[in-house]
Specification:
mainly alpha, single chain
Length: 496
């Protein structure tokens, strides 16, 4: 019976994993999700001609002022050993395979703490909850954020057991190679070593200081820093942002996320307190990850928020969804530990809300993934025909990488202009209030892609977001709807 039970558990977990990769295969095309993805095509294109010094400089150079992402670039370099043509879709899918590795530490901790193995179904389901994995559909998302979280889980696993603590301690110094957030984990480990009265604390502190120093060699700050205001304002704003960040893992609404985030914060502090009381390795594992995700929320608040304006909108971006997935996952993992709470019912019943959550996540992700695919097809078609993009910059550099580098081929999903049926018609688009800086938004109730014609010539493809029932276009694109005519390309005509 035990073997049969294990087979059922493995089968269900396997089905969840296959569903995740099926979504990646079905909704992605070989085109950048966001403008940041171009940096990997540029790196891949230049890689064969690098000298040793150039390889070092390009691999460790800053991205977007503050981020060093050498691990993301090294994964791209490994990919280049096997491929001569860059494919955004295939590299994104291959990078997602790294998430499989974190199932092992969860399985070992479940086994070590004599937890019912059926909880692995919930843990795997929460790990791959579709609505929380949208960041993994962007190349920079999976190469930067997801690899960072995978590394966090592994070093926290090493730190949780005194037998493997040594390698966990020293590997944590490599965390900033994955993403800037790794800098926040070094003080957390330093405090842990002080708490444990570990003799390595002085050596680790010195090594951590060296890591900080080396990381910021050559750093140039941006011309404007979003988070302005007094120290007190920044402190209160950062605390609020941290709470909103973790609460946003459940609901991306300012007021609701504040309430949920406050509960999450109290629960996380309680997990930390129970580790102090019990010295349970699973609770140490949970505490380290929960604290780190909250530290990431604080860093994002300071880096992207504005204390004076009270602007926290950036915290709800889908590019940070992976952190919410991990926060919920670890909160669940802590809750199934018998040493955390004395529950009046069998902990196996916690599977019910976890499974419901995964189900709701799947339902909510469906329309978003459809919109993603529609947008990617429009983006690729705009780049192919018009050297334009409706949402992010597509300049000479990006155009050359796509069309002249010799390392990229446009996907088959690019719309064939000759096959577009329908008579161009005038259309009245209702302008919507400005929500995003530099973006015009118009209301529309149909689904698919609009081909815009100006002066009787094709001008641009506009993807329709079926959830917001709108189209978005950068303000710097000379779009005049009064002088334009439109042809609707329905969603069903975009299928392969």
């Amino acid at each position: 019976m035990k073997n049969l039970e294990k087979s059922f558990i493995l089968g269900i977990c396997g089905a969840i994993i296959l569903a995740h990769f099926y979504y990646l295969f079905s909704y992605l095309i070989n085109f950048p999700n966001w403008g940041d993805d171009f940096l990997f095509l540029a790196y891949f294109t230049d890689l064969p001609g690098f000298t040793a010094k150039e390889f070092w400089n390009r691999t460790f150079e800053f991205h977007s002022y503050i981020h060093r992402i050498p691990m993301a670039r090294l994964i791209t370099a490994i990919y280049a050993l096997f491929e001569t043509n860059f494919d955004f879709k295939s590299l994104t899918i291959w990078a997602n395979l790294l998430t499989l590795s974190v199932i092992y530490p969860f399985a070992k901790l479940v086994q070590r703490n004599q937890i019912n193995p059926w909880h692995m179904v919930a843990l795997v389901g929460l790990l791959y909850a579709p609505n929380g994995n949208l960041d993994n559909f962007a190349l920079i998302g999976v190469l930067q954020h997801t690899t960072s979280l995978v590394f966090l889980i592994w070093i926290s696993y090493g730190m949780s057991d005194h037998k493997s603590r040594a390698w966990g301690i020293w590997l944590s110094l490599l965390y900033p190679m994955f993403s800037t957030e790794g800098l926040a984990f070094i003080p957390i480990i330093l405090l842990l070593l002080i708490y444990l009265r570990d003799s390595r604390v002085w050596l680790y502190g010195l090594a951590g200081a060296v890591v900080f120093y080396v990381y910021f060699i050559g750093y140039a700050s941006p011309a404007t820093i979003p988070s302005s205001g007094s120290i007190v304002e920044k402190l209160l704003f950062t605390v609020k942002g941290t709470i909103v960040f973790v609460g946003g893992a459940v609901k991306k609404d300012l007021n609701i996320s504040m309430v949920i985030g406050a509960l999450f914060l109290m629960n996380s502090l309680f997990v930390l307190w129970k580790y102090h009381q019990t010295k349970n390795s699973a609770l140490l594992f949970s505490s380290l990850i929960l604290l780190q995700v909250m530290a990431v929320g604080a860093m994002i608040t300071l880096g992207r928020g504005n204390a004076q304006a009270g602007d926290l909108g950036a915290l709800f971006s889908e590019r940070f969804s992976s952190y919410g997935v991990v926060f919920i996952l670890i909160s669940y993992f802590a809750a199934i530990q018998t040493s955390l709470y004395q529950l009046p019912f069998n902990r196996l019943f916690l599977l019910i809300p976890a499974v419901v959550w995964v189900g709701l996540s799947t339902v909510m992700a469906g329309p978003k993934l459809e919109n993603l695919r529609t947008r990617l097809i429009a983006d690729a078609s705009n780049a192919y025909y018009f050297n334009k993009n409706t949402l992010y910059s597509l300049g000479d550099r990006e155009t050359k990488l796509l069309k002249k580098s010799g390392h990229y081929t446009f996907p088959a999903e690019v719309i064939n202009l000759a096959s577009v049926n329908g008579i161009p018609q005038a259309m009245q688009l209702k302008p919507l209030p400005t929500y995003e800086v530099g973006i015009h938004e118009y209301a529309i109730t149909t689904k698919g892609i609009l081909l815009v014609e100006q002066s009787s010539k094709p001008f641009l493809f506009l993807p329709i977001n079926s959830l917001s029932q709108s189209i978005k276009i950068k303000k710097d694109i000379p779009f005049d709807q009064k002088m334009s005519r439109f042809v609707l390309i329905p969603t069903n005509e975009l299928a392969d």
